[in-house]
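I am writing to request your help with a piece of structural work I have in hand. The matter concerns a single protein, recorded as an amino acid sequence and a row of backbone structure tokens. Could you please explain, in whatever detail you think fit, how the structure tokens follow from the sequence? Thank you for your consideration; the sequence and its tokens are set out here:
>
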Amino acid sequence: MKNVRVTLFFCSALFFWACSTQTPQQIKDSVILADGTVSGSFDESTGITTFKGIPFAAPPVGDLRWKAPQPVEPWEGVKQCTEFSASPIQSTPMPFSMWTQEFIAPREPLSEDCLYLNVWTPAKDATEKRPVFVYIYGGGFSSGGSAVPIYDGEEMAKKGLVFITINYRVGILGFLAHPELTAESPNNASGNYGLLDQVEALKWVNKNIASFGGDPNNITIAGQSAGAASINYLVASPLTKGLIHRAIAESGGTVFATNALGRGGDLKAGEETGVKFAESLGVSSLEELRAKSTEEILIVRGGGIPIVDGYFLPKPVREIFANGEQNDIPVIIGWNEDEGFGPPPVSAEQFKSNAKQLFGDMADEFLAKFPINSDKEAIAIQNDLGALQTFGIQSYKWMQLQNEKATSKVFMYRFERDVPYADGMSDFGAFHTGEVPYAYNNLKMSPRPWTEADYELANLMSDYWVNFATSGDPNAEGLPEWEAATPDNLKAMHFNTTSVCGDLPSIELLKFLDTFYSN
């Protein structure tokens, strides 16, 4: 009997030794997820494995149109994930203004079946616990997609991150509120389906990213424009508690509802808009609405935008931050010097007249603080206002509230590099979205005439982003020091051919706008 016990002990020990020394499954071969197994594309030259078009929710079609995202249907076998999925339904993506093709989603395919994400990982197996970075696109909540060339994740993965891009529903298909939708919802809310898609993607990441060698306890979310507004919403929402650990918002925010990204109103207002939308299609019921084709829906001009729905957003973002109820996580926030928004500049005399419409009872104070004695001065301050009223003031107020009611640091920046332009292009300066190919080291995705200084700036910015995603602090040995911003230390990193941390730009104008919008 004694020999039998010894033999059993030896066999058990041998079994556990064999299991503990077995080589983990290689990510380049396949990855086992909660819902099934996927395979991607492994690049021998870079060591990066790429997975494109992984479903994170059920297709929101048929009876699931205008519903919160539902779980993925599990699959058998190995799903080949080597091609981007369709972008969400929107008007045909076309280059316009300063945005050339590399800034635009592919023209096709477009589909309501769009809830997929993409992963670039440098990890060889699931034991590595790399920092995770989730990027959310912009497009005014009416356009965009994760297949935009400048969002490619290979370069950031080469710097050590598990990099992810996600799709979410946009326009009226992503943000329709309606009384019948609210009534059928278990959360007594409707409207913010595109934002709920983002939450669902983050839940998927938390559940599955360890299989790609990522650390579910170290997730950074980042976005630009409407993507940055999304970041602000996600940081504020109670639905993301425990899902996110750091955030980057590039040219966007919703602390002050001063632009189209923040004027959606409350659930009642959203429902009223939804009823008018249904009437414009000649229908009177939700069943009839869901029976409409996507082509019929897109015929109606305009689209939905986020609202305070009482569920994803229980109250306005500013109120959530003022009460200290947001996710208390480190953030990088900033804007570009020449965002390119606002009406065309007018003469000094005309602008002085316009100031009375812009600032009402505070117009005289504005003109006294910022005297305008020439057309050149008028053009300069109008350009500054175009960037600050839309984006700069959002970053400034976010910084203030975070320092008042939270403990995590805020790092601010302004992107000031005039983006190079080729023959046939116009000079838009440091335009809206212009920082994205720099921040993600993706100048290679654009045919613009980049210089060595541009490549150096892209390497620097992406290093800061990677450091921040790794530790919550962008700083590292060998990089210019980037000070955290507080109301008593109004500092920002100025990104240009020479990048330095200095005084927050346009601070007096920001303070004036803060007072104006607060009132």
Observations:
- Confidence is low (pLDDT under 50) at residues 1-22, 258-262.
- The domain at 30-518 is CATH 3.40.50.1820 (Rossmann fold).
- The chain has 16 helices and 16 strands.
- The first strand starts at residue 31 and ends at 32.
